[in-house]
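Good morning,

Attaching, inline, the backbone tokens for the sequence recovery test we're adding to the shared suite. The designed sequence is right after.
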């Protein structure tokens, strides 16, 4: 290969297609026609002696060679862009619109202090929130429907980035006059109780059920809901018990009416993460906003 005559624009096209995994969307991002993008990919395939992308129903899928070279190519392109076009976001004067997907627990925990933090720093920044079920977050980021997702994400796609914002331990909660509130909550008593499950995904099992199954145990789930905010009120009006992140109880206005105890089985603390797409990683306004979210969460 003659590197002196290598067209760096081809790498820019390659990067855009890797991000979008769709030639049409990459063309829009690059402000090029689809045939021009296809032609650039053809030239790059010839130079690198690899197909780079194969067609799939949703667009294209990268070959092992494309996956191998993408990270160093992207890092080099980002360094060039930052050198030639240093861009900064002025939060005090500039307007920005950011869409976040998050559940009601994350909204209760984060939005009140975040809005107070942003009100003076960035008066022209507008936030829009939509529900996050954890199933749709990656798809919404891929399709540019949202800018950021906040929640629990056990695995990430290659084109998504994440940052842990905070962790929360698990507790078992019930009404203060619940029969189990006057006893030590053993594992046997726990599995015999009637349970409330918060399930954002719609699944009828929670984080504790696989652990119980490993011990040959199961529990009766009497009610499933998809909002954390209703749980304390339900508990004080029933004999249901629930395993929840401790912060859910701390945020409740009726926490004093609930009995909170340790879960009688070990559960790994949950990590709440902020997730965004690779295409927006260098966006000045979004980068600044992510820094503010992380700063607010560090004080929670």
């Amino acid at each position: 290969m003659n590197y002196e005559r290598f067209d760096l624009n081809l790498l820019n096209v390659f990067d855009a297609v890797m991000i979008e995994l769709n030639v049409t969307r990459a063309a829009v991002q690059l402000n090029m026609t689809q045939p021009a993008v296809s032609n650039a990919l053809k030239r790059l395939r010839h130079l690198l002696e690899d197909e780079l992308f194969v067609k799939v129903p949703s667009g294209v899928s990268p070959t092992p060679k494309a996956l191998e070279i993408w990270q160093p190519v992207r890092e080099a392109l980002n360094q060039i862009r930052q050198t030639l076009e240093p861009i900064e976001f002025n939060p005090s004067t500039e307007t920005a619109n950011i869409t976040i997907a998050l559940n009601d627990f994350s909204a209760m925990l984060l939005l009140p202090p975040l809005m107070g933090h942003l009100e003076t720093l960035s008066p022209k920044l507008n936030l829009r929130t939509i529900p996050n079920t954890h199933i749709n977050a990656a798809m919404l980021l891929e399709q540019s429907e949202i800018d950021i997702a906040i929640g629990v994400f056990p695995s990430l796609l290659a084109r998504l980035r994440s940052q842990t914002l905070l962790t929360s331990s698990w507790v078992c909660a019930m009404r203060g006059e619940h029969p189990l509130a006057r006893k030590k909550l053993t594992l046997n008593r726990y599995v015999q109780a009637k349970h409330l499950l918060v399930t954002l995904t719609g699944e009828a099992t929670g984080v504790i059920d696989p652990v119980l199954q490993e011990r040959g145990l199961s529990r009766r789930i009497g009610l499933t809901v998809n909002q954390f905010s209703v749980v304390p009120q339900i508990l004080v009006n029933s004999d249901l018990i629930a395993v929840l992140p401790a912060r859910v109880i701390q945020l409740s206005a009726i926490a004093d009416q609930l009995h909170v105890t340790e879960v009688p089985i070990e559960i790994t603390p949950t990590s709440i993460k902020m997730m965004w797409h690779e295409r927006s990683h260098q966006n000045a306004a979004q980068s600044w906003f992510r820094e503010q979210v992380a700063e607010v969460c560090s004080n929670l």
